[in-house]
Specification:
5 helices, five-stranded mixed sheet, single chain, 218 residues, alpha+beta, four-stranded antiparallel sheet
């Protein structure tokens, strides 16, 4: 993919199925679209690849895997203050971290609504987190327009350190790849799915079920 195509790629991440933009406004409930769900996973880390509409994109950074501790790295909260991703307010209990390239695309938007609205009460037991490279201001605007109050939004806009530290950074477009991970009470990654194709959703239901088992086991 040519360098000049990155802006087009960013705009098109959520539109590959012929979708139109679906910004959430006012009090209207979110309209879910029929989007493909990935049943596989890519591998995090330097030199590994994911696809965008079949075109390979290269990941950068030291790849994280199941069984690794979540790594210490600072991300920005919506007031611009920094917090260690390993020490958010849900530290010490199960956490679900949903990683999206940009909240202003339909696939990322739907992934975030699923996290917020279709977790079947998990939000009362675990911390739900969305990480993207959008600015904290954009994340706050999105959460307000979408009326999402049960998700912690964290921004990796300061140098993409979260993405690079966990091997989830896409060098070419300077975005995070799409992923979902479940972190246990000891801060260990117990579940990780990186969608091999950026235009597909991760299997959020499987992640929810895994998180619920971790809560039940404890």
């Amino acid at each position: 993919m040519r360098t000049g195509s990155w802006a087009v790629m960013v705009a098109a991440i959520g539109f590959s199925a012929g979708l139109v933009g679906c910004q959430t406004t006012g009090s209207n409930p979110f309209t879910y679209k029929n989007m493909p769900v990935s049943n596989g996973t890519a591998v995090a880390g330097e030199g590994n690849k994911v696809l965008f509409q079949g075109n390979p994109l290269t990941l950068a950074g030291s790849g994280i895997k199941i069984g690794d501790p979540l790594r210490d790295v600072k991300v920005a909260q919506n007031d611009l203050s920094l917090v260690n991703i390993a020490e958010t307010k849900g530290s010490g209990k199960v956490r679900i971290i949903s990683v999206v390239p940009s909240l202003d695309t339909p696939v990322c938007e739907q992934q975030t609504h699923i996290l917020s609205e279709r977790n079947k009460g998990l939000d009362k037991m675990v911390e739900l987190i969305t990480v993207s490279i959008d600015t904290p201001f954009a994340q706050k605007r999105f959460a307000g327009e979408a009326k999402i109050a049960n998700v912690t939004f964290l921004s990796d806009y300061r140098g993409a350190e979260f993405g690079k530290t966990h091997g989830l950074f896409l060098e070419g477009p300077s975005l995070l790849t799409r992923a979902v991970m479940v972190i246990d009470k000891t801060n260990t990654v117990r579940y990780l799915q990186i969608t091999p194709e950026l235009t597909q959703l991760p299997d959020m239901e499987e992640a929810f079920q895994f998180a619920r088992r971790l809560v039940t086991e404890s």
